[in-house]
Amino acid sequence: KNEVEQSPQNLTAQEGEFITINCSYSVGISALHWLQQHPGGGIVSLFMLSSGKKKHGRLIATINIQEKHSSLHITASHPRDSAVYICAVMKGAQKLVFGQGTRLTINP
Amino acid sequence: DGGITQSPKYLFRKEGQNVTLSCEQNLNHDAMYWYRQDPGQGLRLIYYSQIVNDFQKGDIAEGYSVSREKKESFPLTVTSAQKNPTAFYLCASRRGSTNEKLFFGSGTQLSVL
Protein backbone atom coordinates (compact mmCIF):
# COMPACT_ATOMS: atom_id res chain seq x y z
CA LYS A 1 0.00 0.00 0.00
CA ASN A 2 1.32 3.47 -0.93
CA GLU A 3 2.05 5.84 1.92
CA VAL A 4 0.07 8.54 0.09
CA GLU A 5 -3.18 7.69 -1.65
CA GLN A 6 -5.20 10.10 -3.76
CA SER A 7 -8.77 9.80 -4.96
CA PRO A 8 -10.15 9.85 -7.47
CA GLN A 9 -7.41 9.01 -9.96
CA ASN A 10 -9.36 10.67 -12.76
CA LEU A 11 -12.12 13.26 -12.55
CA THR A 12 -14.13 14.84 -15.34
CA ALA A 13 -16.58 17.64 -14.62
CA GLN A 14 -18.45 20.45 -16.30
CA GLU A 15 -17.38 24.06 -16.06
CA GLY A 16 -18.70 25.67 -12.90
CA GLU A 17 -18.86 22.52 -10.79
CA PHE A 18 -17.38 22.29 -7.30
CA ILE A 19 -14.41 19.92 -7.31
CA THR A 20 -12.96 17.89 -4.43
CA ILE A 21 -9.75 15.86 -4.58
CA ASN A 22 -8.81 13.76 -1.57
CA CYS A 23 -5.46 12.71 -0.13
CA SER A 24 -4.93 10.16 2.66
CA TYR A 25 -1.57 9.30 4.14
CA SER A 26 -0.36 6.66 6.55
CA VAL A 27 2.80 8.18 8.03
CA GLY A 28 3.68 10.96 10.42
CA ILE A 29 4.32 14.17 8.55
CA SER A 30 5.63 17.67 9.16
CA ALA A 31 3.76 19.25 6.24
CA LEU A 32 1.57 18.43 3.24
CA HIS A 33 1.89 19.98 -0.22
CA TRP A 34 -0.62 20.30 -3.03
CA LEU A 35 0.95 20.64 -6.46
CA GLN A 36 -0.43 21.26 -9.93
CA GLN A 37 1.15 19.72 -13.04
CA HIS A 38 0.10 21.04 -16.45
CA PRO A 39 0.28 19.03 -19.70
CA GLY A 40 3.73 20.46 -20.51
CA GLY A 41 5.04 18.81 -17.37
CA GLY A 42 5.99 21.77 -15.23
CA ILE A 43 4.82 21.68 -11.60
CA VAL A 44 3.55 24.59 -9.55
CA SER A 45 3.22 24.52 -5.78
CA LEU A 46 -0.32 25.47 -4.77
CA PHE A 47 -0.34 25.06 -1.00
CA MET A 48 1.76 23.89 1.88
CA LEU A 49 -0.22 22.94 5.00
CA SER A 50 0.64 21.74 8.44
CA SER A 51 -2.79 22.37 9.99
CA GLY A 52 -6.22 23.85 9.30
CA LYS A 53 -7.19 25.44 6.04
CA LYS A 54 -5.73 27.71 3.37
CA LYS A 55 -7.46 29.60 0.55
CA HIS A 56 -6.09 31.16 -2.60
CA GLY A 57 -8.58 32.48 -5.10
CA ARG A 58 -10.91 29.63 -6.05
CA LEU A 59 -8.72 27.00 -4.43
CA ILE A 60 -9.12 25.79 -0.86
CA ALA A 61 -6.98 23.20 0.90
CA THR A 62 -7.78 21.59 4.24
CA ILE A 63 -5.96 19.11 6.40
CA ASN A 64 -7.06 16.95 9.34
CA ILE A 65 -3.92 15.77 11.12
CA GLN A 66 -5.75 13.33 13.41
CA GLU A 67 -7.46 11.60 10.49
CA LYS A 68 -4.36 11.86 8.23
CA HIS A 69 -6.45 13.34 5.45
CA SER A 70 -6.37 16.42 3.24
CA SER A 71 -8.70 17.76 0.59
CA LEU A 72 -8.24 20.21 -2.26
CA HIS A 73 -11.37 22.03 -3.39
CA ILE A 74 -11.90 24.09 -6.51
CA THR A 75 -14.93 26.37 -6.63
CA ALA A 76 -16.50 27.52 -9.92
CA SER A 77 -14.21 25.23 -11.91
CA HIS A 78 -12.95 26.37 -15.31
CA PRO A 79 -11.35 24.51 -18.25
CA ARG A 80 -8.00 26.14 -17.40
CA ASP A 81 -8.09 24.20 -14.09
CA SER A 82 -7.57 21.01 -16.11
CA ALA A 83 -4.31 19.51 -14.87
CA VAL A 84 -2.90 16.75 -12.69
CA TYR A 85 -3.11 17.58 -8.99
CA ILE A 86 -0.52 15.94 -6.77
CA CYS A 87 -0.49 15.54 -3.01
CA ALA A 88 2.89 15.17 -1.33
CA VAL A 89 3.75 14.73 2.34
CA MET A 90 6.96 15.74 4.06
CA LYS A 91 8.43 12.95 6.18
CA GLY A 92 11.17 14.35 8.36
CA ALA A 93 13.42 17.14 7.16
CA GLN A 94 13.94 16.40 3.48
CA LYS A 95 11.88 13.44 2.31
CA LEU A 96 8.78 14.21 0.25
CA VAL A 97 6.51 11.27 -0.57
CA PHE A 98 4.22 11.86 -3.54
CA GLY A 99 0.78 10.55 -4.39
CA GLN A 100 0.14 9.28 -7.89
CA GLY A 101 -1.87 12.34 -8.84
CA THR A 102 -5.45 13.09 -9.84
CA ARG A 103 -6.07 13.96 -13.47
CA LEU A 104 -8.78 16.63 -13.60
CA THR A 105 -10.56 17.54 -16.82
CA ILE A 106 -13.06 20.42 -16.87
CA ASN A 107 -15.25 20.53 -19.95
CA PRO A 108 -16.73 23.83 -21.18
CA ASP B 1 12.47 36.82 -12.93
CA GLY B 2 13.58 34.26 -10.37
CA GLY B 3 13.08 30.62 -11.08
CA ILE B 4 14.49 27.24 -11.97
CA THR B 5 15.69 26.43 -15.46
CA GLN B 6 16.06 22.89 -16.70
CA SER B 7 17.66 22.00 -20.00
CA PRO B 8 17.29 20.46 -22.41
CA LYS B 9 13.53 19.92 -22.59
CA TYR B 10 14.04 16.70 -24.58
CA LEU B 11 17.10 14.45 -24.54
CA PHE B 12 17.93 11.21 -26.28
CA ARG B 13 20.47 8.73 -24.99
CA LYS B 14 22.27 6.08 -26.97
CA GLU B 15 23.16 2.71 -25.52
CA GLY B 16 26.12 2.96 -23.15
CA GLN B 17 26.17 6.73 -23.15
CA ASN B 18 26.23 9.06 -20.16
CA VAL B 19 24.05 12.15 -20.43
CA THR B 20 23.81 15.19 -18.18
CA LEU B 21 20.66 17.13 -17.35
CA SER B 22 21.10 20.74 -16.32
CA CYS B 23 19.31 22.49 -13.44
CA GLU B 24 20.02 26.11 -12.57
CA GLN B 25 18.20 28.33 -10.04
CA ASN B 26 18.52 32.03 -9.27
CA LEU B 27 16.31 31.94 -6.19
CA ASN B 28 19.24 31.75 -3.76
CA HIS B 29 17.82 28.47 -2.46
CA ASP B 30 20.01 26.20 -0.38
CA ALA B 31 18.25 22.89 -1.05
CA MET B 32 17.92 21.30 -4.49
CA TYR B 33 16.35 18.01 -5.56
CA TRP B 34 16.11 15.68 -8.53
CA TYR B 35 12.98 13.60 -9.06
CA ARG B 36 12.04 11.01 -11.60
CA GLN B 37 8.45 10.66 -12.87
CA ASP B 38 7.20 7.56 -14.63
CA PRO B 39 3.70 7.26 -16.12
CA GLY B 40 1.10 6.39 -13.50
CA GLN B 41 3.57 6.71 -10.63
CA GLY B 42 4.33 9.36 -8.09
CA LEU B 43 7.59 11.32 -8.27
CA ARG B 44 10.55 9.52 -6.76
CA LEU B 45 13.61 11.16 -5.24
CA ILE B 46 16.94 10.49 -6.95
CA TYR B 47 19.35 12.83 -5.14
CA TYR B 48 19.15 15.94 -3.02
CA SER B 49 21.56 18.57 -1.80
CA GLN B 50 21.09 20.82 1.21
CA ILE B 51 24.25 22.85 0.76
CA VAL B 52 27.09 23.42 -1.70
CA ASN B 53 29.55 20.52 -1.99
CA ASP B 54 27.21 18.14 -0.20
CA PHE B 55 24.52 15.80 -1.55
CA GLN B 56 22.62 12.72 -0.41
CA LYS B 57 21.17 9.70 -2.19
CA GLY B 58 17.41 9.49 -2.49
CA ASP B 59 15.30 6.37 -2.99
CA ILE B 60 16.47 5.52 -6.53
CA ALA B 61 20.06 6.84 -6.81
CA GLU B 62 21.54 3.79 -8.56
CA GLY B 63 22.73 4.66 -12.06
CA TYR B 64 22.75 8.40 -11.40
CA SER B 65 25.33 10.91 -10.18
CA VAL B 66 25.20 14.57 -9.19
CA SER B 67 27.45 17.44 -8.22
CA ARG B 68 26.87 20.69 -6.31
CA GLU B 69 29.89 22.87 -6.94
CA LYS B 70 27.84 26.08 -7.00
CA LYS B 71 24.74 27.06 -5.07
CA GLU B 72 22.85 27.82 -8.30
CA SER B 73 23.59 24.58 -10.12
CA PHE B 74 22.75 20.91 -9.51
CA PRO B 75 23.39 18.84 -12.66
CA LEU B 76 22.26 15.22 -12.88
CA THR B 77 24.20 12.65 -14.89
CA VAL B 78 22.35 9.56 -16.06
CA THR B 79 25.05 6.95 -16.46
CA SER B 80 25.15 3.84 -18.63
CA ALA B 81 24.53 1.85 -15.43
CA GLN B 82 20.94 3.14 -15.39
CA LYS B 83 19.24 0.42 -17.43
CA ASN B 84 15.82 2.03 -17.66
CA PRO B 85 16.46 5.76 -18.01
CA THR B 86 13.38 6.70 -20.04
CA ALA B 87 11.39 9.02 -17.80
CA PHE B 88 10.50 12.63 -17.08
CA TYR B 89 13.05 14.28 -14.79
CA LEU B 90 12.16 17.20 -12.56
CA CYS B 91 14.49 19.46 -10.61
CA ALA B 92 13.22 21.38 -7.59
CA SER B 93 14.58 23.77 -5.00
CA ARG B 94 13.54 25.46 -1.78
CA ARG B 95 15.01 27.83 0.76
CA GLY B 96 16.06 25.06 3.15
CA SER B 97 13.57 25.06 5.97
CA THR B 98 11.12 22.15 6.09
CA ASN B 99 8.22 24.59 6.00
CA GLU B 100 9.09 26.26 2.72
CA LYS B 101 7.36 25.74 -0.62
CA LEU B 102 9.08 23.81 -3.36
CA PHE B 103 9.79 25.43 -6.73
CA PHE B 104 10.01 23.14 -9.75
CA GLY B 105 11.66 23.38 -13.13
CA SER B 106 9.77 22.56 -16.32
CA GLY B 107 11.33 19.12 -16.63
CA THR B 108 13.43 17.10 -19.08
CA GLN B 109 12.03 14.13 -20.99
CA LEU B 110 14.79 11.57 -21.48
CA SER B 111 14.35 8.79 -24.02
CA VAL B 112 16.58 5.95 -25.14
CA LEU B 113 17.41 5.60 -28.84
Structural account:
With 108 residues, chain A is mainly beta. Chain A is 0% helix and 61% strand. Chain A has no helices and 11 strands. In chain A, β9 and β10 form a beta hairpin. With 113 residues, chain B is mainly beta. In chain B, 0% of the residues lie in helices and 49% in strands. Chain B has no helices and 11 strands. In chain B, strands 2, 4, 5, 6, 9, 10 and 11 form a 7-stranded mixed β-sheet that branches. In chain B, strands 1-3-8-7 form a 4-stranded antiparallel β-sheet, with no helix packed on it. Chain B is globular and about 40 Å long. At the A-B interface, β4, β5, β9 and β10 of A face β4, β5, β9 and β10 of B.
Features:
heterodimer, A: 108 residues, mainly beta, six-stranded mixed beta sheet, five-stranded antiparallel beta sheet, globular, B: 113 residues, 11 strands
Question: SSE layout and pairings?
Answer:
The complex is a heterodimer of chains A (108) and B (113).
Chain A: E1 4-7, E2 10-14, E3 19-25, E4 31-37, E5 43-49, E6 52-56, E7 59-64, E8 69-74, E9 83-91, E10 95-98, E11 102-107
Parallel strand pairs in A: 2-11
Antiparallel strand pairs in A: 1-3, 3-8, 4-5, 4-9, 6-7, 7-8, 9-10, 9-11
Chain B: E1 4-7, E2 10-13, E3 19-25, E4 31-37, E5 44-51, E6 54-57, E7 64-66, E8 76-78, E9 87-94, E10 103-104, E11 108-112
Parallel strand pairs in B: 2-11
Antiparallel strand pairs in B: 1-3, 3-8, 4-5, 4-9, 5-6, 7-8, 9-10, 9-11
